[in-house]
Amino acid sequence: MGQFNQHEKTLVFCATQDHALAVRDLINQMKTSTDPNYCQRVTANDGELGEQHLRDFQDNEKTIPTILTTSQKLSTGVDARNIRNIVLMRPINSMIEFKQIIGRGTRLYDGKDYFTIYDFVKAHHHFSDPEWDGEPIEPEPKPEGKTIPPLPPLVDRVREEPVEYVKRKRIKVKLADGKARTIQHMMVTTFWHPDGTPMSAQQFLELLFGKLPEFFHDEAELRAIWSVPETRARLLQGLAEKWFGAEQMAEMQRIIDAENSDLFDVLAHVAYAMAPLTREERAARARVEISAHFNGKQQAFLDFVLAQYVKVGVEELAQDKLSPLLKLRYHNAIADAVADLGQPEEIGRVFAGFQKYLYQPSIQSGL
């Protein structure tokens, strides 16, 4: 971080999505900027939030985010003209991919005469293409007088050893209710208080625990709110207004090892120390109730909805997702959807009505 201008837009290519997350956290720990969005991860797992970070990064009028970490996603198709640094932290085995990645830095921009490649993995050693590279440029004659010894090549100055990955420790945090929650212990700050000060994961957990009673008073009320798309949306909006938005909740999912769980499980775990279920487990148990309450064609559609829920998350159950789901399931043939499922009002009732079976208490039996 001390070797380049921290205000320059930079792409960091990492080995895996988890590696990209760890590098993002480390950069945000070492940065001089006070903006919490200075460095963001953009990978396949980051969905629409990652796409928004990418759009902001590509906007030459915006300076935040300044650095993006990624694994595979940004090696092609990123038209960000003001990229000044490309950082390679993963092996590259294809010359085509190597050229594509380096090509992210070749876009022209006012005042941009060059870009810099930081090759931590010696990727350039594997590729030699004189036709693409061109002939070496002869150095200009040095003026008479005192000469300045050249710096050693960058690739010789960077650490050559393979990157070591440290397994994250797990710690237990006892909250005011006397019950402990287990979280991943992180050396870096990934959360920010509404007043702009950084927080540890433990501090964020404690803050969220203290705020949740403002939104629901017990487990039954949380279930009732979460079972209905409209009230769930209002709860999520209320949490976002208190600084517990989608990005913060996604981080909380990660630190309690619940990335494959519903956000309901995150809230229930924080508020009541309930063990999270995976979305796959919720879907499997809900299918039993669905088979008893809906006809065959409705079951087929709801099974498709559940598959999307398991794959993407609870956002697929939002009311405004119904139309896109119908178009996806019926290949834009809405008339076929109506023929199978009934009029729009009936389809809406089916879509909203089945969701209570995902969150009813029996689903949590045995925990």
Automatic annotation (TrEMBL):
It is an enzyme of class 3 (hydrolase). Keywords: Hydrolase. One of its GO terms (molecular function) is type I site-specific deoxyribonuclease activity. Its EC number is 3.1.21.3. Residues 5-107 form the Helicase C-terminal domain. One of its GO terms (biological process) is DNA modification. Residues 131-152 are annotated as: Disordered. One of its GO terms (cellular component) is cytosol. Residues 202-359 form the EcoEI R protein C-terminal domain. Gene3D superfamilies: P-loop containing nucleotide triphosphate hydrolases. The keyword Secreted does not apply. Pfam families: EcoEI_R_C (PF08463), Helicase_C (PF00271). This is Type I restriction-modification system, restriction subunit.
